Request: fold
Amino acid sequence: MHIDRPASLPALPARSLSAVALALAGSLFGGAVQAQPAPLAGGSLTWGVTTEPVCFDPHRSSQQNSFFLIRNYVDSLIYKKADGTFAPWLATAWTISQDGREYTLTLRKGVTFSDGTPFDAAAVKANLDWVKDPANTANAASFLVYYDHTDVIDPGTAKIVLRQPDSTLLESLSSVKLGFLSPKILTKNVDLCSGGPGVIGTGPFVFEQYRRGQSVTFARNPAYAWPAENAKHRGPAYLDRVTYRFLPEYAVRTGALSSGQVDVIEGVQPTDIGLFQDAEGFQFLTGPSSETSFTLNVNYTQPPADDVRVRQALRDGFNGEAIVRSIYRGTVPRAWSIIGPSNAAYAKPLVGTWGNDIAGANRKLDEAGWTGRDSEGFRTKDGKRLTIALGYPQPYVRDNRDILIQAIQAALRENIGLDLDVRIISAGEWAKQTATGTWTIYPNTDNPSDAAMELWDMLGSGGFLYGNIKTPDAETTGLIDKVRLVPDPTQRQPLLNAIQERGVQQGFIVPLFAPHYQIAAKANVQGLGFEPQLDAPASAYEIWIGK
Amino acid sequence: MPLLRRILVRLATGALVMWLSVTVAFLALHALPGHIEDVLAGDMNYPGLHEAIAQEWGLNRSLPVQYADFVGKIATGDLGTSYVMRAKVSEVIASQILPTVELALLAGIIAAAIATALAVATSGRGEIPRSIASTLEMVLTSSPVFWIGFLLLMLFSFQLKLFPVSGGDGWRAIVLPAITLALPTSGLLAQVLREAMERALEQPFAVTIRSRGVGETAIRFRHMLRHALLPAMTLGGWLVGGLLGGAVITEKVFGRPGLGSLTLSAVTSQDVPVVLAVVLLAAFTHVAISTLLDIAYVLVDPRLRSQ
Reply:
């Protein structure tokens, strides 16, 4: 079920290389990589992106689509690799105390913010304390629920002390949301959401200009010499300048790239992929899928979905594989778990174990007493129709996801006589439903950090879905609370599997498909890739423009 | 001093309209389901977050207190800070207003030019050109702005590469968006103009002018157009609103800066200060346009001067 990772992608540009180069090479794939010329420094690049960030402050932003832009000027302590292990970045080494409460980090020497302020233990403390301070209402504070304080041991050593062990901390520290801004701008108490040259990090680019409604430009940081250990090169970025232009319409991005007005686009409509994939002069890349899959979260405390048989019927009453394939034309895989298939924490045992069992679904509804039928063919019990509302907040509707849900709605009606009452609701109505715990089905993807955190968000006792519900499933919430205490990956995985399996088995979650970023670019753009933790395109650090 | 009195009455009613608009918008935003702090928190939850957000923006105060605070600040020219963008609303609006005004103004001029040309060329003339024009106008009027935008982009930007797809830079970037926005408006305007001209052409004075030997095009430009202007102007005032509304979609299609997308996102995220500022601006525009139109009527129609 794994989709292409960036590591396998350099094969694509090979198609544009000359036959001579291929003939000289021993094997097609390896040969193509060897035949690539040395990276060229200089030039500028323009991306057409789907979303204009509402906020450029890494600690405050909550938009998935903003973080790969922010990554250009913000570095983290550690880097999460595709296999789930961590590489040194601004921290060269770290140790975790026996009780799991103290993380001692050795910081890289010679790192400076672009305003000249040294990056040291005091800067680490200043940033984490700022995020934790409730007065700042930072989104990233959700990563620091168990954070107590940071001790500055010496300028090169910081010790993070937690109130209780938290196995999600390492991945949280690798997230851009806990990246570092110059302590000088943190204390100045200016709001950094609006971007501009005043937003100062340690990253490979500096913030040059933000033109609201139009574009944002970053310029190379010539002093940069501290990429993550697994980066493909050291030293400054290749590009002089990178500009991200906000082009919210699919067709406009496609046209802008095919007519050469931009070099790269992100977010390619399934019908347009053929214009770039295997096409002369272009390349097409798909990213990892390690955030949560697009999932129907079913509120198991609200009737009629408080009956496990109804939830299981909903889960099995449609052919998810066929519906996903017809809407996305084979560009995204169907999901088996709420955790994305590229994530090391993905519950592999779930693959192929559920779904599309229409006879079984009908049997369960019969058992549950939904045996009547009304004039429109829906099942009824005691004269009441089998209806479950699905409220999809309008601001989150994108990516043909509403159409996918409508297809499922039609299938459930035809297959099992269940009325999925799909409504596009306002953000306010959604907020009201979560605040009162009365939401019914919530379709969503979520990308905090760390699989345990994702599960905590969506199914945990303090997450935004079940936080206001008095009696969430004790077994699920208990397992989630427990897995946050266990730092050892080998002990963690069985627990993570158990949570995902229980969620699917009980019909708390109905995973639909595993979304991933899609990039199309001119063939001469080299070094495009993805950051596994972000689940999004990497920063422009490795990108260069070939001949 | 009837003139001074009229100006004072104008100013007073204008201020009243703006105050009422802001009040209604404030009440409407708070009547929407959900607490604003919950909307702002979104899919984010940790202990104390919602309370901290309410504290930060003063949302934990009673509604009358919040209302008095907003109106009091607006009266002193302080539009407050956006809950979502966390930037001064006055700065955000200032950075976005010019592109939208430029776009709407240019679109208005293009629409007026196309409509005048169509009306002069076809009113009261042969049946065939008239029905061709009238069909064209119907098509333009009923075409969605985004569809026209895509067609123009595909032809002139992606194929012929004459104009850039997006941006707020230079005259090239504004050509396609302005035409996109102008076309539906010009269709409607042309229909109104032609009908009014045809009515004027039936008047006895038209015969008089013709008897002096004035040509068919000259009679329309010099004499009939002026008669047709009154209904067109009334419509024109209403069209300003249409142009500003159409700008929302045009800006999105072309990736242009402007007030459109700003307003859209502010409403969906219940960003009260931004919505209030935009409503205030819209009310101001309405008052200003209707005042200007009142003056223009007098200039165009001598009969009004004697009143």
